[in-house]
Amino acid sequence: MDTSGSCAMPKRMNTSDGSERRVGVEIEISGLSYEKLVILVADLLAGEARLTSRYVSSVETPLGEFTVELDSEPVKDLDLQDERLPESVRELGGHAMDLIDAAAEKIVPLEIVSPPLPFRELERIEVLCNRLREAGAVGTREAMIYAFGLQLNPEVPDLKPGTLVGYLRTFAALYDWFKARHQLDLSRKFTNYIEPWNSKYVDRLIAEDYDPDMTGLMEDYLKENPTRNRALDLLPLFSHIDDDLLRKHVRDTRVKARPTFHYRLPDCDIDNPEWHFSTVWNDWVILEEIAASESELEELMELFRASRKLLSFTNLTHSWKDQCHQWLQKKGYV
């Protein structure tokens, strides 16, 4: 699969109703001031920026509404100029806010959140990331305190349990390979919001006879993974499918319903000239292609099941990450 320098497209380009599938993208960076980033995004996407609240701007573009914000609710909500405060506090507050803002923009990531974009428009995100790099944006390897990510929210092609199981099995098998390729920074490796799925759940998921209905699929996942803090977070999707069932297991108000996977694993290494948005996306497309092929998915599952057996010479001498990479090479994916 030749994926250098451009965004590959999967076979499943449309949803079950015939509309083109879309994907939301979230990019965390530093190195630029908030104000400069808003101006750059508006200029690069031919958009018009509007401040909607402290450290939150909407940028209306031909592709839809992008959001540029400081990724910290306490800083965004802080207001030392509130008229309810004593005047003496407000006078000092202006100087304090300048210091807080200067520190926050160096420590807290600035985030660009796209609207749901048709897959065919993703080259625009590739160009955006390249231009931001040229302008001085830095990513997660710039400092140990940074833990910046690039998140994808690809729309599912349909809501059939069998389709979703295919995607989940493929991700479970590719997790170690994905992590080696895209989860590079120690600061993010020590956080808990990119954890793999519970091992007990993975064993159930990849069992040869696993064929749940939607309620069973959701229950199995939520009993073992009732949290947003997973490398592939299914809570938004399950909220879209059956929010009442989700809320029996998860009370987190941050979960918003949408018919997408939430892929949280990759670092944003934007200042590295060898790093590209398209590389992250194209690896996701590999998952798409395997999930869409019954024969290749079953072949991968046989290897993955075998890799989880303790009494195996192959498993003692070869990591699953390496076995997986060799299989992907043999199949022409990498």
Overview of the structural elements:
The chain is of the alpha+beta class and 334 residues long. It has 13 helices and nine strands. The protein has helices spanning 34-44, 73-77, 87-107, 123-135, 161-182, 186-189, 199-205, 214-224, 235-247, 277-291, 294-307, 313-317, 320-330, and strands at residues 22-29, 48-53, 56-61, 64-70, 110-113, 117-118, 150-154, 232-233, 262-263. Strands 1, 2, 3, 4, 5, 6 and 7 form a seven-stranded antiparallel beta sheet that branches. A hairpin with a 2-residue loop joins strand 2 (48-53) and strand 3. The longest helix has 22 residues, at 161-182. The termini are close together.
Structural class designation: alpha+beta
What summary fits the major beta sheet? 7 strands, antiparallel
Q: What ranges have pLDDT less than 50 throughout 5 or more consecutive residues?
A: 72-97
Q: In oligomeric terms, what are we looking at?
A: single chain
Helix content: 40-55%
Radius of gyration: 21 Å
Please write the string of helix (H) and strand (E) elements.
EHEEEHHEEHEHHHHEHEHHHH
Record field, number of beta strands: 9
What count of helical segments does DSSP give?
13
What is the global morphology?
globular
Beta percentage is 5-15%
Question: Overall mean pLDDT score?
Answer: 86
